[in-house]
């Protein structure tokens, strides 16, 4: 009975851990391409600032401000993912999975904030998801070459 | 009714993903890089998508023959997965001369011990296999593999040179073991009721699907090695610094 209880608790925890690890690995596979800088600059996204404040500067956590910044970036990026340089205007399966992951982590961020522990870890995870979205978007945009074209030339080339 | 339809959907999805993965591993030549994994995937797909459906078609789902076939093949696959994890250990640590010889003998001994214990337990309970015994037995076997898999995951995480593909394969195996182990422990604690087999089947199918989708992703979605210019990186970090300055002013 005790062994079964232990197995139940540990296995459930490890199941959640592995699901989270898979999401993280999917993020890392794209993370090193670093297409996201142009998207971050063009849209003035703030997740690099949040990450930098937590990781590099070890600044005191302004929870409500950081939370709002991450939420706004998430809304902007999900909109862009769906509508920018995307002829099908649909999200791919891994994007949907990561959006779900973001929402779950965002919920737990609030829960852990109430408990007063682990907020930084959740914020870093949320920022890494946003970086992934920016990367995907940046990669997509980088494939469309319209830098030296006029609007009409670009439309005619489609 | 709804659960049955959902279970069927999961089952056929599993067959499709298993077939896709086997084709991807063969067509993309990944079986040369991971021969042990390719062998395991082919064996698993053959049992899950060919052997079990044949027995199911001949004898029916509630027949004793199907149940024996299911649980015995499940035990064999779990032992196969244990062997696969041991081979992943070899792949990860073979170059570390100071650790590997000791680890190899430990893993070999544990594998032989587990195989002997499993064979003895199953043969001694062979006529009363279906019931509490198999649930407890498989729960322990899954959990043993889960622990070994977690040790492998931690070992990989501490290594300097990271094999991303291997990491994802190990994560997939973790889901494959953790889900059924938790469900079996829950069934064992709450007692085998009327809905227990259906509940177990549903959860096991969902975990198997998640595992195989992860493996399929590993072999089909490859990253490209492009990177951005250093100027763009500087621009982003400059933007972050401006925001930091704004924060310090507030």
Task: Give a verbal description of the structure.
The complex is a heterodimer of chains A (158) and B (250). Chain A is mainly alpha-helical and 158 residues long. Chain A has one domain (2-157). In chain A, 78% of the residues lie in helices and 0% in strands. Chain A contains 7 helices and no strands. The mean pLDDT of chain A is 80. Chain B is globular and about 50 Å long. Chain B has 250 residues and is mainly α. Helices cover 83% and strands 0% of the residues of chain B. In chain B, α3 (35-59) runs antiparallel to α4. Chain B has a single domain (2-223), classed as Rhopdopsin 7-helix transmembrane proteins, CATH 1.20.1070. The termini of chain B are far apart.
Features:
heterodimer, A: 158 residues, mainly alpha, 0% strand, B: 250 residues, 9 helices, globular
Topology:
The complex is a heterodimer of chains A (158) and B (250).
Chain A: H1 2-31, H2 36-43, H3 47-55, H4 63-83, H5 93-115, H6 119-143, H7 151-157
Helix pairs in contact in A: 1-6, 2-6, 3-6, 4-6, 5-6
Chain B: H1 2-27, H2 30-33, H3 35-59, H4 64-93, H5 100-124, H6 132-157, H7 164-190, H8 196-220, H9 230-249
Write a brief structural summary:
The complex is a heterodimer of chains A (158) and B (250). Chain A has one domain (2-157).
pLDDT below 50 for ≥5 consecutive residues: which ranges of chain A?
A: none
**What is the CA-atom radius of gyration of chain B, in angstroms?**
22 Å
Binned strand content of chain A: under 5%
Termini separation of chain B comes to 60 Å
Shape of chain A: globular
Helical residue percent of chain A? over 70%
Q: How many domains would you count in the coordinates of chain B?
A: 1
Note the quaternary state here. Answer: heterodimer
Structural class of chain B: mainly alpha
């Amino acid at each position: 009975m005790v062994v079964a209880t232990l197995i139940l608790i540990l296995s459930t925890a490890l199941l959640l851990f592995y699901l989270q690890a898979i999401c993280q690995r999917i993020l890392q596979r794209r993370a090193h391409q670093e297409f996201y800088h142009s998207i971050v600059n063009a849209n003035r996204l703030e997740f690099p600032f949040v990450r930098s404040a937590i990781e590099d500067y070890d600044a005191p956590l302004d929870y409500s401000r950081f939370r709002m910044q991450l939420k706004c970036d998430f809304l902007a990026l999900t909109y862009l993912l769906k509508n920018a340089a995307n002829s099908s205007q649909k999200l791919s399966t891994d994007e949907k999975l990561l959006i779900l992951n973001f929402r779950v982590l965002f919920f737990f961020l609030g829960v852990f904030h109430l408990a007063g522990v682990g907020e930084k870890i959740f914020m870093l995870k949320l920022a890494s998801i946003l970086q992934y979205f920016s990367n995907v978007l940046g990669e997509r945009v980088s494939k469309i070459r319209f830098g030296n074209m006029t609007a009409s030339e670009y439309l005619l080339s489609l | 009714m709804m659960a049955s339809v959902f279970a069927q959907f999961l089952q056929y999805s599993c067959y499709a993903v298993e077939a896709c993965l086997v084709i991807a591993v063969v067509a993309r030549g990944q079986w040369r890089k991971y021969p042990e994994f390719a062998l395991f995937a082919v064996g698993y797909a053959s049992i899950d998508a060919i052997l079990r459906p044949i027995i199911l078609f001949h004898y029916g789902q509630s027949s004793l023959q199907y149940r024996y076939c299911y649980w015995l093949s499940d035990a064999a696959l779990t032992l196969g997965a244990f062997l696969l994890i041991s081979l992943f250990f070899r792949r990860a640590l073979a170059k570390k001369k100071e650790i590997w010889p000791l680890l190899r003998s430990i893993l070999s001994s544990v594998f032989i011990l587990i195989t002997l214990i499993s064979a003895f337990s199953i043969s001694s309970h062979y006529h009363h296999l279906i019931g509490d015994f198999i649930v407890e037995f498989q729960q322990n076997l899954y959990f043993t593999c889960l622990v070994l898999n977690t040790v492998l995951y931690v070992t990989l995480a501490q290594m300097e040179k990271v094999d991303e593909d291997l990491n994802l394969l190990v994560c997939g195996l973790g889901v494959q073991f953790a889900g059924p182990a938790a469900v079996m422990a829950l069934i064992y604690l709450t007692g085998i009721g009327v809905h227990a087999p259906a509940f177990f089947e549903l959860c096991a199918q969902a975990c198997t699907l998640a595992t195989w989708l992860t493996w399929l992703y590993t072999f089909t979605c490859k990253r490209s090695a492009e990177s951005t210019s250093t100027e763009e990186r500087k621009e982003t970090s400059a933007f972050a610094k401006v925001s930091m300055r704004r924060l310090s002013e507030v």
